[in-house]
Amino acid sequence: MKEAAKRVAQRLRDASSVMIISHIDADGISSGSIASYALDHIGIENKIRFVKKLDEALISELEAENPELVWFTDLGSGYLELLGGLDVVITDHHVPSEPDEAEEEPGEEKAAVTSARKTLFDFSEPAAKKEAKSYADSDILQVNPHLIGRDGSTDISGAGTAYLVARELASELKWLASIAIVGAVGDLQDRREGKLTGSNREILEDAIESGAMEAVMDIGLYGRETRPLYKLIQYASEPELKGLSGNYRACMRFLMGLDIDLKAGERWRSWADLTRMEQRHLFSALSQYVPKEELLAEIYLFPNEKVGTPLHEAKEFATLLNSCGRYGKAELAFEVCKGDRGLALDQAFNLQGGHKKYLVESMKVIKEIGIETMDNIQFVHVGDRIMDSVIGIVAGMILGSGSISKDKPLFAFAEADDGIKVSGRSTDELAGRGVDLSELMGRVTKEIGGIGGGHNVAAGATIESGKEQDFLLLADRIVGEMLDS
Ligand SMILES: [Mn+2]
Predict the structure, then answer these.
(1) Do 132 and 261 fall into the same domain?
(2) Tens of pLDDT along 344-367?
(3) CA 122 – ligand 1 centroid, Å
């Protein structure tokens, strides 16, 4: 990837202005910030635009604007066939599309692509001929782990690939590696091993060397900086603490028995607020519920940021970015990544505060509507009462809250701009028994239309409005099959 990064860097240096296009999630925001910071640093004018997804409408808009050079970060590789009319470089970790595949397999969704390519290769017209050449040369420069046979879900994130280029643009920008780590944990790349591996490891070394980041083995539960202790335990899902997770009373009883002050004045204390002694005491008490090895994870800290704030730890940092992105304020998070600790940070915190309230309200909405149960799944349809960008989190919270059964995966429907968003949430236990929601989303959308994908315990899809019933019947049957096999 280093060679590819060098070529992309050279192409960028030759440009006088660059349009950066990135995704609105934590990895996308980190990617875009790294790209923009590096270009600023070497004096290349740049603009950034955050998008929910890359599609033909966006490409046509870009073609109309006709920017000198477009830098796609954390997206782009899957849509090479759409980009023929633009001058682009790509740093991405999603599976790249292969120009020749579509013709062999003209599936429904690929038909449009195939016919577009036929036009491109129609040599009878001189204009088309010119286009065909640039496409056939496949001039698109990409940094992408898949191109060297690595796994884009663990080896490196979009932000990591952007960082490889930033480092080539200016070797003194090693601290940007710490932002790339935020992107990587935002995309859960450390989940499988409890730490970052592969190319992410090299990026981590740069981050540590720059002094912007520390890696420590510590409690792996999410929320060590800002969550009150009882919530740290109550919401623990990786690993789950049997008997405590999802049970507020049990958590309080457990903590009361430990002789640790749970509050400092009016404020609830978090893990980061505890003394080393208190942390050790709580850790060993928790290890009665789950093996120590599972409770420990590698944690990535920003030693120069204030302890007890989301900026001090990479996962909470990523959550802050995600909250901004979800409410259409990716630009705020972008400024925070680039170093703003004033107005943008204040606004981002406010937004996150609002986000938390919104989640609490959304939980109430779901309780009001009620969860319905089928043979193998449970579901809820919230209509337009909860934003589609948040429905997945809410579904996960409901399933983890202990207020509903965890024996069946939960599907939540919400109205979206482009149809109905379905978020599926499941548990590691169900995954162990063969339930894979990512595969399920793929199979169902193949049958009833729409697009879907994700992970085994958390996946999503967008389907046509009115197809909810079809979705449920199929999903119920597929989960049944998965459990039986
Ligand atoms: Mn990503």
Answers:
(1) no
(2) 999 999 988 888 889 889 999 999
(3) 36
